[in-house]
């Protein structure tokens, strides 16, 4: 028995066995998109909220400036000691 934990059915697809995409209603788990930034204004970062980010992404999605449908996430600042 093989349990495909690739997140995108790589093993099942390559094995040629039936598989389903998503939860049956067309929704799938969002991929994890992580990135790091340098030279960030620490004071502005401390004041940043996910609500503000979500609002900006919603506005950009409406205007076409942003094409990724996901507008939620987590902000996890790892500011250097003494910042």
Describe the fold and architecture.
By secondary structure, this protein is mostly helical. Helix content is 31%, strand content 0%. The chain contains three helices and no strands. It has helices at residues 10-15, 42-47, 50-63. It is elongated and about 50 Å long. It starts with 9 loop residues before the first helix and ends in a 20-residue tail after the last helix.
In short:
By secondary structure, this protein is mostly helical. 31% of the residues lie in helices and 0% in strands. The mean pLDDT is 80.
Order of helices and strands: HHH
Query: Biggest sheet: strands, sense, closure?
Result: none
Let me know the average pLDDT.
80
Number of H- or I-type helical stretches: 3
Radius of gyration: 18 Å
> What is the terminal-to-terminal distance?
51 Å
- Unreliable spans: none
Strand content: under 5%
- What structural class should be given to the helix and strand makeup? mainly alpha
Percent of residues in helical segments? Answer: 25-40%
Report the count of strand segments: 0
Oligomer: single chain
Characterize the overall form. elongated
């Amino acid at each position: 028995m093989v349990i495909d934990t690739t997140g995108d059915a790589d093993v099942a697809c390559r094995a040629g066995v039936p598989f389903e995409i998503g939860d049956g209603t067309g929704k799938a788990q969002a991929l994890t998109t992580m990135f790091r930034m340098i030279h960030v204004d620490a004071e502005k970062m401390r004041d940043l909220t996910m609500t503000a980010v979500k609002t900006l992404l919603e506005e950009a999605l409406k205007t076409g400036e942003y094409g990724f449908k996901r507008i939620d996430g987590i902000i996890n600042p790892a500011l250097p000691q003494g910042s």
